[in-house]
Amino acid sequence: SLGPDKPYLTCFVPFYVGMTDLPTSYQTGTTETFDRSVAWWAFNFVANWASMKFSYMKKDILAKQKEIEGKEFSMQEAIDAAALRLHEKDPALAREYLTNYCIDNANRVVSQWWDLADMLIAKYDDGYVNIPKTAEEVGYPEWWLKEVGYDKGPISYKRPLEVDTTNR
User: Fold this and answer.
1) Which regions form coiled coils (predicted)?
2) Where are the beta strands (DSSP E) in the chain?
3) Which residues of the chain have a pLDDT value below 70?
4) Could you say which of 16, 40, 129, 164 would form a disulfide bridge with 98 (CB–CB 3.0 to 4.6 Å)?
C-alpha cells in the first residue's frame, strides 16, 4: 500500500508486486508546481488545508479515509483470489489484471480525495462550518488570540444569513 503525504491524513492505496505500470498521477509531479493531475498534491493539499482547523476537519478526513480504505480491504480477498486463478493459467495475465485493477483503483481514490478537498474548502470557508446550509461560527481559541496579540481586537465576524453566490 502507498499513502502519499502524512500517514494520519492520507488514504492508503494497494499496489501489488509484479505490476507492470503505475498510475501516471503517482509517477509525475513536483513540489514546485501545484498540479491536480498529480496524486501527491491531492493528499498533500488535504493535509495542509486541514492544518487551518484540524480539530474540525480531521473528522471529515478520517471518515473518508475509513470509507475508502474499508472498501479496498473488503475487496482484497476477491482480488487476490482472481489474480491467483489467472496466475495459475498465465502469470502475465495475472500481472496485467493486477496492474489494471491498481491503476483504476488509484485513479478513483485520487479523484475521491480531490472531491474531499473541494468539500473541505467549501465547508470551512472563512473560518465557519458552512455545511449544513447555516454557517456555524467556530472562532479561535483564547490562548491563540493572546499569543498573536489579537485578544483585544474583534475575535469574530458575523456572517450574513443568506449570501448570494450566483455571481461568484
Assistant:
1) none
2) 128-129, 136-137
3) 132-139, 153-168
4) 16
Q: What pLDDT was estimated at residue 96?
A: 98
Give helix 54-89 / helix 39-50 axis angle, nearest 10°: 150
Do residues 39 and 4 touch, judged by C-beta distance below 8 A? Answer: yes
Of 34, 37, 43, which is closest to residue 11 (Cα–Cα)? 43
CB 102 within 8 A of CB 15: yes
Q: Is 162 helix (H, G, I), strand (E, B) or coil?
A: coil
Non-local CB neighbours of 6 within 8 Å, separated by 6+ positions: 43, 47
Pairwise CA distance, residues 11 & 62, whole Å = 9
Distance CA 119, CA 163 (A): 18
The grid coordinates of residue 156 equal 469574530
Residue with C-alpha cell 491524513?
9
Domain boundaries, the chain: 7-123, 134-168
**pLDDT for 99:** 98
Which residues have C-beta within 8 Å of that of residue 113, sequence separation ≥ 6? 11, 42, 43, 46, 64
pLDDT digits over 8-18, tens only? 889 999 999 98
For helices 39-50 and 91-123, the axis angle rounded to 10 degrees is 30
